[in-house]
Amino acid sequence: MIVARMQYADSLPPKQPWEPPDEYSAPPEALIIQPTYDFIRAHLAAALPHMRPADIIRDNEDRIWCLAEKGKEYLVFSLGGGSVTIDLGDAAGQQFQAQWFDPRSGELSPAGVATGGGTVSFTSPNGHCWALWLSPTNDS
Q1: Quick one: pLDDT at residue 16?
Q2: Is 22 in a helix, a strand, or coil?
Q3: What is the mean pLDDT of residues 100-110?
Q4: Complete DSSP assignment for 53-122
C-alpha cells in the first residue's frame, strides 16, 4: 500500500506508469476496442512509435488515412471500405505482405502481396471500416 508517496514495508514497489497493471477489469464499454488493442499490442507495438502520418493515399483521401514508416511498414485505415490505392514509390524493390484487419472481430485476413516502387490497389472485404496492414515479407 502506498499513501502520499510513502510505501509500507509489506507492499511491492510501485510500477512504472507505462507498465500495465497486474490485474485490470476493463469497463464493459471498452470491450468494443479490445480487438484493436490486441492487434496493436501483438503486431504493431514495436513499429507504431516509428510510424508517422503519410500522404501516400491516391483515392478516397477524405475517408482513408495512413501511418507509415516508409519503406518498412504501413497501416491504412479505411472509414468505409472500398478501394484503397497506395503510392509505394519510396519502397522500390521491397515486398510487403498485405492483410486486412477487422476492428470488429480482431481477425486478420490475407490481402495479397504488394511490391514497392509504384502504386498498389486493394479492395476491402465489405463496406465497413477496415485497416490494411502492409508488413515486410521474409524475402525483403
Answers
A1: 73
A2: coil
A3: 96
A4: E---B-S-TTTEEEEEETTTEEEEEETT-SEEEEE-GGGTT-EEEEEEE-TTT--EEEEEEEESSSEEEE
Burial of 124 per CB tally in 10 Å (0-12, 13-18, 19+): buried
pLDDT tens-digit series, residues 58-68: 988 889 999 99
Q: Look at residue 39 and give its three-state secondary structure.
A: helix
Of 67, 76, 93, the residue nearest 133 (C-alpha) = 76
How far is Cα of residue 127 from the mean position of the Cα atoms in its chain? 19
Average pLDDT over the chain reads 88
Q: Specify the pTM.
A: 0.79
pLDDT tens for 6-50 read 555 665 666 676 676 777 777 888 889 999 999 999 999 999 999
C-alpha cell at 80: 468505409
Among 66, 64, 67, 68, CA closest to 78: 64
CA–CA separation, 69 vs 49, rounded Å?
Answer: 9
Domains of the chain: 52-136 (2.60.40)
